[in-house]
């Protein structure tokens, strides 16, 4: 009688890492954003801002980092997605120490918030592009202006360039890092997909995918249905919303190394490129 060999036990794969941790490691550059907005505000007013509101805050990485950067700093985080705010309360706030008492997270539409008044309102990672009409974006900017102390500013980012309106997939490798609770985030590949762009209404559909070291891909971890707003449109709507003036700060470029720098400079004109990043600052 022939005995059959038992099948070898299948090796169990590790679960997918938390997509919020992967997003933070790949997309958010909190230290850079904090440095730039503080530098710009100080350059305009000769003093540092103290009170910040992060709209469309997601896991509130920026709000928590702001509160943690000084005992006199207070932050509010506003988002309409309750599960992500719950993640922030569960996974981020417990690890910022005393600064947690200076962070307030609010589940509400940012267009309805005008108190308390702050020095800076930020809407980064192109989050305000969820507004597809001038009326909707204008309503948001009016609420942001009403939220500002005298001399305050709203701080938005934007991207563009010839590649920004093309269907494409960009890959970048992200080094191992640590999450807010010290949890290890292994190295992975970040894939940014621009799936479609409609030049008639400037509607841009994008996806974020993550490819892990073992070859698995976490597809469509995040999806976006945006209107790509242009710099003059944003500035015109800021004026309509009552801002005294606005400025564009473009990311600097090193021609010698063909690499983007971590600094941004005010510009009134620049040659279009395949891709660029900018901050648009509205002054109340």
Describe this structure in words.
There is one protein chain. By secondary structure, the chain is an alpha/beta fold. The protein has 2 domains: 19-161 and 227-283, Rossmann fold, CATH 3.40.50.150; 171-225. 23% of the residues lie in helices and 36% in strands. The chain is built from 6 helices and 14 strands. The longest helix is centred in the N-terminal third of the chain and has 16 residues, at 30-45. It is globular. It starts with 18 loop residues before the first helix and ends with a strand. The mean pLDDT is 94.
Please describe the structure with a list of short key phrases separated by commas or semicolons.
single chain, 284 residues, alpha/beta, Rossmann fold, 2 domains, eight-stranded mixed beta sheet, four-stranded antiparallel beta sheet, 6 helices
Count up the helices: 6
The residue ranges in which pLDDT falls below 50 over 5 or more consecutive positions are none
Residue share in helix: 10-25%
Round the Cα radius of gyration to an integer and report it.
21 Å
Query: Which term fits the overall shape?
Result: globular
Instruction: Provide the domain count.
Output: 2
The major beta sheet can be summarized as: 8 strands, mixed
Order of helices and strands: HHEHEHEEHEEEEEEEHEEE
Strand tally, please? 14
Structural class: alpha/beta
Instruction: Please report the distance between the alpha carbons of the first and last residues.
Output: 89 Å
Q: Determine the mean pLDDT.
A: 94
Placed side by side, the strands forming the largest sheet appear as 3-2-1-4-5-14-12-13
Strand content: 35-45%
Would you identify the CATH architecture of the largest domain? 3-Layer(aba) Sandwich
